[in-house]
Design a protein that fits this description.
single chain, alpha/beta, 2 domains, four-stranded antiparallel β-sheet, 31% helix
């Protein structure tokens, strides 16, 4: 972040921005590194320090089962620049097939004790506790897509970078032949009599693939 970048932000009238961390310096740098393999943790903190008070900064903290024990150290570091942070947002996520992350649920993998531990840490730092809410999977919408770094389109953010599950490309400007099968697939044959169908809509597509190898498994 240099003076030119700051002037461009002012010119575009940007009033807020979100930055994302994935754990303490060691954990974060293993996930978010530059092309030269150097980590981005310290650079993000320096950029936040250099931003003017004209911009509200929201710090999103992604937490997986594997990064949970590093969160206190990160929150301690964020405390040092708390005058620059509008809000810290803790987001439980799960590591996916592509090592990207999806905020579908921390609880999908059954780590109840870890979820309670995370809430305990959050409240120690005076942050808002997290309430477990399971909503309809993004995969069921026909107007929400995730885009990979090479321009491929996916209905499920957990499957980004797995070309087998791509439904098209922004470069081609169209959907491929897989798209209709995703949108029109009947996922609920075994669910119609379940009183919780309206809550889960057949469940998480990523978890279905992980556990059964079948995208359409309820």
């Amino acid at each position: 972040m240099n003076k030119s970048h700051l002037n461009k932000i002012r010119h575009l009238n940007i009033k807020s921005a979100q930055v994302t961390f994935d754990g303490n310096e060691y954990v974060h740098n293993k996930i978010r590194m530059h092309l030269n393999r150097l980590g981005s943790y310290k650079k993000i903190f320096n950029n936040i320090r250099n931003l003017t008070d004209e911009i509200d900064i929201f710090a999103r903290v992604n937490v997986t089962i594997n990064s949970l024990n590093s969160i206190r150290e990160l929150l301690d570091d964020l405390q040092k620049i708390k005058n620059k942070i509008k809000q810290v947002i803790i987001t439980p996520v799960m590591e996916t097939l592509s090592m990207s992350q999806c905020s579908c649920a921390f609880l999908l993998e059954g780590h109840i004790e870890s979820f309670l531990k995370l809430n305990s840490i959050i409240m120690e730092y005076g942050l808002e506790p997290i309430f477990p809410v399971q909503g309809t999977c993004l995969d069921y919408f026909d107007n929400i897509f995730s885009i990979s770094s090479n321009g491929k389109l996916f209905t499920c953010p957990c499957l980004v970078s797995k070309d087998t599950f791509s439904i098209g490309s922004i470069h081609e400007g169209t959907f491929n032949t897989s798209y209709p099968s995703y949108i029109l697939a009947e996922r609920w044959d075994s669910c119609y009599d379940c009183e919780y169908l309206f809550l889960c809509s057949g469940g998480c597509r990523y978890r279905a693939i992980k556990e059964s190898g079948k995208w359409g498994q309820a």
